[in-house]
Design brief:
One of its GO terms (molecular function) is acylphosphatase activity. Belongs to the acylphosphatase family. InterPro entries: Acylphosphatase (IPR020456), Acylphosphatase-like_dom (IPR001792), Acylphosphatase-like_dom_sf (IPR036046), Acylphosphatase_CS (IPR017968). This is acylphosphatase. The structure is a single chain. By secondary structure, this protein is an alpha+beta fold. It has one domain: 2-Layer Sandwich (Alpha-Beta Plaits), CATH 3.30.70. It contains 2 helices and 5 strands. The chain has a 5-stranded mixed beta sheet with strand order 4-1-3-2-5. Strand 2 and strand 3 form a beta hairpin. It is globular.
């Protein structure tokens, strides 16, 4: 699976309490991307996406809008080697 990439993403803004994690999970599953998403104590959302490069890029771009009720201020993404994530879940 050498064609897989990994993006570690941090999303800032009004992204907690607006179904951001559930919408991220649904978007990732629809794109066949593995990984996870969780809320951080500082109000940001953290996510990891692993999959085909185009699909992962699509999810990173999706994060700039996120759920309909979200107000995203910034998205930071760092790329690295895949760590064999399987499925997509909320932590």
């Amino acid at each position: 699976m050498s064609d897989r990439v990994r993006a570690h993403v941090f999303v800032s803004g009004t992204v907690q309490g607006v179904h951001y994690r559930a919408n991220t999970r649904d978007a990732a599953r629809e794109a066949s991307v593995d990984g996870w998403v969780k809320n951080l104590d500082d109000g940001r959302v953290e996510a990891v996406f692993e999959g085909a490069e185009d699909d992962v890029e699509q999810l990173v771009e999706w994060c700039h809008t996120g759920s309909p009720a979200a107000e995203v201020e910034s998205v930071e993404a760092d790329y690295g080697e895949p760590e064999d994530e399987s499925e997509f879940g909320i932590r």
